[in-house]
Amino acid sequence: MTTRYSSSRPTSAFNQKKSIIGEGPIAPSPKNFMYFVYILRSKRDNHKYIGVTKNLENRLLQHNSSQVESTKHRRPLEVVGYRVFDTIYEALIHERKYKNSHGQLERDIKNGKITLTEKY
Question: Which H or E element spans position 91?
């Protein structure tokens, strides 16, 4: 289903783009996606896992239902923190930084860039 928007202002180049799911102009919209770099902790052995996802709740369910190979033997898992990004590119860069440099993760936690849900 395609929604068409009308406006009294002249059409801009942005509004001339065609939707891939239907005919008609694409209306400007707020950001549709957020990407999360998340930190999980195993309740079994206190091991930490860092990953990236668009849907944090669904991803936690996948981890806790043995659908993720690297964490299926560490269940149950809980989210201890996350950081939100506008693009997958930014999220992947920070995931790599956090995995390769524990100091970067600690600094971002200390500076309040990561939202903690549990005591880290």
Answer: helix 88-100
